[in-house]
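for the writeup, i need someone to sanity check this before i put it in the appendix. the sequnce is what the collaborator sent (i think, or maybe the updated version? ugh). structure was predicted straight from it, no edits. if anything looks off just tell me and ill rerun, i have time this weekend
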Amino acid sequence: MGGPGRQPPVWDSDSPADHGDPTPGSAGGHCLLLWDYAGTTDTDLVTLLTWGSKQKATWRWVRSRIMEAHGLAWGQLHAPGSLYPAGDDWAALVEANAAYLRGVS
């Protein structure tokens, strides 16, 4: 576990007091890259890239602090004419994004 000057092994908004102030914004703003995740419930873990290393956190922690989010979809990683493993259609994804940017629901 973390001690004075050490980060906890998993960032969580439900952390012991010796892991520092859990209040969102208490450490100032910071840009993080969410690298991967194992589920989407509050206690499922995500991997964040920050300060040159990987850091585990719960979705609960991420959701309590997120102020801005961006997503990337790379068509180059998609086989032409096929679906993604989750069944998503690339053309439908592109059109849904374009509609969102036009303000159409």
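The mean pLDDT is 78. Residues 7-73 form one domain.
thx in advance!!
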